[in-house]
Amino acid sequence: MSTSEITDLRRELEKARLTLIDAQSHLSAHAHMNAALHCATEVFFSPLHAKVTAAIAGIEHALNRTVRQDLPTLDNEEQP
Known about the structure:
Elements: H1 3-37, H2 47-65
């Protein structure tokens, strides 16, 4: 993959991550609302909340793997 393709991929992954974080927040608020509505002492999150959380973790893992690391060369010059 070229550098520009990786940059585009990272941009799309970041958009998906932000969207999923919003969905996770909504699902969490919904679970808390349900618990309050039923005067429950515990909050039970939906299976969808767990899947969204796992998807966020997967995207963050992919983003961390594609971070460019500038390593020194033998002549101590930066890589292009």
